[in-house]
Design a protein that fits this description.
The chain is α/β, with parallel strands linked by helices and 662 residues long. The protein contains 14 helices and 26 strands. It folds into three domains: 87 residues, Chitobiase/beta-hexosaminidase domain 2-like (Chitobiase, domain 2, 2-Layer Sandwich); 285 residues, TIM Barrel; 221 residues, Sandwich (Jelly Rolls), CATH 2.60.120. It is globular. The N terminus is likely disordered.
C-alpha cells in the first residue's frame, strides 16, 4: 500500500467512525411543521418512501403502546415518531394518537429528483390543551355542509379537534325538526331563507367529523337570541308553552349528536323563568350530554362547562373553554393574528381537568357577502393556523400585559412569531393553495412612529414638522418628534378594546395625531400595489364606508416619495348600513391594492394618523391603527428584494417571500 493509498484509507475510516455517511445527496431543509412538536430532533437521515406511497409504505410501522413516556397530559392524542433511513416507527396509545401522528408525517414528507422522502427525526408530541376549536355562526348565516367538511378536513390536519356549531339565532333556525317544521320554513328566516340542515345531513356531518377526530359541540341558543323560534311558534322560549316546545326540541336535537357536550347558550338575556335553565340542563344530561353555556351567561352549576367571552375571569372549580379576545369578527389581518398566536389560553401554560382549551369564534351579525367573504374578512385560515399552534404547544403571554405589541427583531416573542410566520407561509404553499389565505409576511416591515400630538378635535391639525417629514423623513429630528420603532404590517396605536389590550401608545387619548414613516428599498423601478387601511371593519358592526376621497372619517393621509396617495372609490359610499347590507370593498383584502410606482433605490412612505373620539356616529368602535404593505400589482404577493428600514439599512434580515391567495 503506497502513501497516497494509506492516506485515503485512513480518511475513509475517519468518516465512517464519525457516522457521516447516512444518505446521498444534500440534506433538504427542515420541513415546516404546524403546530410545532413539543420535542423534536433531526438526525440528518432520509427515509425513501416506497412506490406504494405514504399510506401503504411497508416500512412505516404503527405500534400501540400503553403510554408515551414524554407526554405530560392528553395521552390519547400523544404520539412518537422515529424516522431512520431504513424505517419509520410510530407509537401511540390509540387511533386518535395515530391520526395526529399521520398529520405530522404528511408535513414531514417531501420530494426531490429521486422521489418522495421523509426527513430523519425523533418526535415526541402531545397537546397542551384538549379542546382546540373554531365556531361558525350558522344561525345568522348559513354555511353549506360541503364547506364545513372542507374546513374540518383541512384544520384537523393541523390538529384542530373541535367544531362549535351555532345553529340558531334571532335571524334563523338552521336545524330541521319533526316537532316544529315551521322553524326552518323560508318565512321564518330573515337571511339565507332556504338554508338549513336536515337530520340526515347532520348525522353524516357528525360521522365525517368523528372520522377526523373532531368533536362537534352543537348549540341551540336559549332563551335569548331566539327570534326565529318566536316567529315560528308564536311563543317566547320562557313562556309556559314555549318551555314545553323548547324541551321537546332539545331532546330531539340531542339524538342527532354523539359528542360529550351540548351548548345551550344563555348569554345576553334576562332570565324571567327561574327554572328554565336548570330544566334544559336536565334534559341534555338525561341524553348523556354535559351542558355548555356562555359566561357571562345564566347561572349554572359547577358541572356545566362555561365558554368564556368578553372580559370575564375564570370561575372557580368549573371546566372552561376560553374564547376571550378570540372573536375573529373583531380582529384584523396582522396585528391581532400575532396576539392570537402569542396569547396564552385559560390564563395557563397548559390545560388541566378544568382548563379544557379554547375556541375561536366568528359571528356574522352583519351579513357577509358570501361564504368566501367569511373566510377572507376574518382571515380564517391564517388565524386558525396561529391558534392551532398556540393551543397545541401551550405557553404564550398574558394578552392584558403583552397585548398586540409584536415587539422588534431580537425580542423572543417577535422571533418566535417570525419563525411561525415562515412555517405558516410554507404550509400555505404546500397544503392551502386552493383556499382563501389573506396574509403575506410582515415581520420584515419596520417603522418609526411619533409621539401623540394633541389636535383638540381638529383632524386637520398639522405638527410643526409635518411638511419636512413628508419631503424627507431623514430631515426630521427623532428627538423633536419622539419617534420610536415598531414592526409589522399593522400597528394598533389604541386597540379596539382600549386599555384592556395594550397597543403601541402607552396612554392613547382621543383628539390626538401621530405620524409614522419608513424607507422602502426597491432593486428596480417597478409598478406595485399598496395595501393600506386605517380601520379594520368589524363583521358585527354597522360601520359606514369612508366618504368620497378619504381613507376614513379621521382624515388620515399617506405619502409615497412626497406624493399624496389617493384612496379607492368606495362601493358603499354614502350608504347608511344595516345588518343586511354586506361590506363591499371597505376591508383591505376585499379590494385591489392602490397602484403605486417605486423608484430604484430608497422610497419614503409617510403616514399621518389623526383620531378624534373613540366612538362616532359613523363608527361605533373607532380603531386607531394602520396597515401598510407594498404588494404586487394584483395584491397576491410581494415584490422581490424590498427592504423596509427607517434607517435605510440594507443588511436587514429578510423574511420568506410568498404569494397569498385571496
Amino acid at each position: 500500500m503506497n502513501l497516497r493509498t494509506k492516506i485515503y484509507f485512513h480518511l475513509i475510516l475517519l468518516i465512517l467512525a464519525a457516522g457521516a455517511i447516512t444518505c446521498t445527496g444534500p440534506v433538504p431543509e427542515k420541513p415546516s411543521l404546524i403546530p410545532a412538536p413539543q420535542i423534536v430532533s433531526w438526525n440528518g437521515e432520509i427515509y425513501r418512501i416506497s412506490p406504494a406511497g405514504l399510506p401503504d409504505d411497508p416500512g412505516i410501522r404503527k405500534i400501540t403502546v400503553a403510554s408515551i413516556d414524554e407526554a405530560r397530559l392528553n395521552m390519547e392524542e400523544a404520539y412518537r415518531i422515529t424516522v431512520r433511513k431504513d424505517s419509520v416507527l410510530i407509537h401511540a396509545t390509540g387511533e386518535e394518537g395515530f391520526f395526529r401522528a399521520d398529520a405530522t408525517l404528511k408535513q414531514l414528507a417531501g420530494s426531490d429528483a429521486e422521489g418522495q422522502f421523509i426527513q430523519g427525526c425523533s418526535i415526541a408530541d402531545w397537546p397542551a390543551f384538549r379542546v382546540r376549536g373554531f365556531m361558525h355562526d350558522c344561525g345568522r348565516s348559513y354555511i353549506p355542509i360541503s364547506e364545513l367538511k372542507r374546513e374540518v378536513e383541512i384544520l384537523s390536519s393541523f390538529k384542530i379537534n373541535t367544531f362549535h356549531w351555532h345553529l340558531t339565532d334571532d335571524i334563523a333556525w338552521r336545524l330541521a325538526s319533526g316537532i316544529v317544521p315551521e322553524l326552518t320554513a323560508p318565512e321564518t328566516a330573515l337571511r339565507n331563507k332556504h338554508g338549513f340542515y336536515t337530520k340526515e345531513e347532520v348525522k353524516d356531518f357528525v360521522r365525517f367529523c368523528r372520522s377526523h377526530f373532531v368533536e362537534v359541540i352543537p348549540e341551540i341558543d336559549m332563551p335569548g337570541h331566539s327570534g326565529a323560534f318566536t316567529r315560528a311558534t308564536g311563543h317566547t322560549m320562557q313562556s309556559e308553552e314555549g318551555r314545553k316546545i323548547v324541551a321537546g326540541l332539545l331532546a330531539e336535537a340531542c339524538t342527532l349528536f354523539e359528542g360529550k357536550w351540548f351548548h345551550i347558550g344563555t348569554d345576553e338575556v334576562d332570565i324571567t323563568s327561574p327554572d328554565f335553565v336548570s330544566e334544559m340542563m336536565a334534559i341534555a344530561r338525561d341524553h348523556g350530554n354535559e351542558v355548555a353555556g356562555w359566561l357571562p351567561g345564566a347561572q349554572m352549576d359547577q358541572q356545566a362547562v362555561r365558554q368564556l367571552w368578553a372580559d370575564v375571569s375564570l370561575p372557580q372549580n368549573t371546566t372552561v373553554i376560553d374564547s376571550r379576545y378570540r372573536y375573529l369578527n373583531h380582529t384584523d389581518y396582522y396585528s391581532d393574528l400575532f396576539a392570537i398566536y402569542n396569547s396564552r389560553i385559560c390564563d395557563s401554560e397548559h390545560g388541566s381537568d378544568l382548563l379544557a382549551g379554547g375556541i375561536c369564534c366568528i359571528w356574522n351579525d352583519r351579513k357577509p357577502a358570501s361564504v368566501e367573504d367569511i373566510l377572507v374578512s376574518n382571515a380564517f385560515y391564517p388565524t386558525m393556523l396561529a391558534f392551532a399552534e398556540r393551543s397545541w404547544i401551550g405557553g404564550g403571554d398574558n394578552i392584558k400585559s403583552r397585548g398586540v405589541r409584536m415587539g422588534l427583531p431580537g425580542d423572543p416573542a417577535f422571533e418566535r412569531f417570525r419563525d411561525f410566520e415562515t412555517r405558516m407561509m410554507a404550509a400555505r404553499e404546500k397544503f392551502l393553495a386552493d383556499v382563501p389565505f389573506p396574509y403575506l409576511p410582515q415581520t420584515d416591515i419596520l417603522w418609526k412612529i411619533s409621539s401623540q400630538y394633541p389636535n383638540n378635535g381638529n383632524l386637520n391639525f398639522s405638527a410643526p414638522f409635518e411638511m419636512d417629514l413628508i419631503a424627507d423623513p431623514d430631515g426630521t429630528s427623532s428627538l423633536e418628534a419622539g419617534f420610536r420603532p415598531a414592526a409589522g404590517a399593522a400597528v394598533y396605536l389604541r386597540h379596539t378594546w382600549g386599555e384592556k389590550v395594550p397597543a403601541f401608545c402607552p396612554d392613547p387619548g382621543p383628539d390626538h395625531t401621530t405620524y409614522t414613516y419608513t424607507w422602502i428599498y426597491s432593486p428596480s423601478d417597478q409598478k406595485a400595489g399598496l395595501h393600506f387601511n386605517t380601520h379594520n371593519y368589524g363583521r358585527s358592526e354597522l360601520d359606514m364606508a369612508p366618504p368620497e376621497g378619504e381613507w376614513d372619517y379621521k382624515r388620515s393621509r399617506v405619502w409615497l416619495n412626497g406624493e399624496l396617495v389617493s384612496p379607492p372609490a368606495w362601493d358603499n359610499n354614502a350608504v347608511k348600513p344595516d345588518h343586511e347590507t354586506p361590506y363591499a370593498n371597505e376591508n383591505m383584502w376585499s379590494r385591489p391594492p392602490v397602484s403605486i410606482n417605486l423608484k430604484k433605490g430608497w422610497n419614503s412612505l409617510v403616514l399621518k394618523l389623526p383620531v378624534g373620539s373613540f366612538s362616532t356616529p359613523e363608527t361605533r368602535l373607532v380603531k386607531w391603527m394602520f396597515t401598510a404593505m407594498v404588494v404586487t400589482p394584483d395584491g397576491k404577493g410581494q415584490p422581490e428584494g424590498l427592504v423596509y428600514s427607517p434607517e435605510q439599512k440594507l443588511n436587514v434580515k429578510k423574511n420568506h417571500r410568498s404569494k397569498s391567495k385571496q
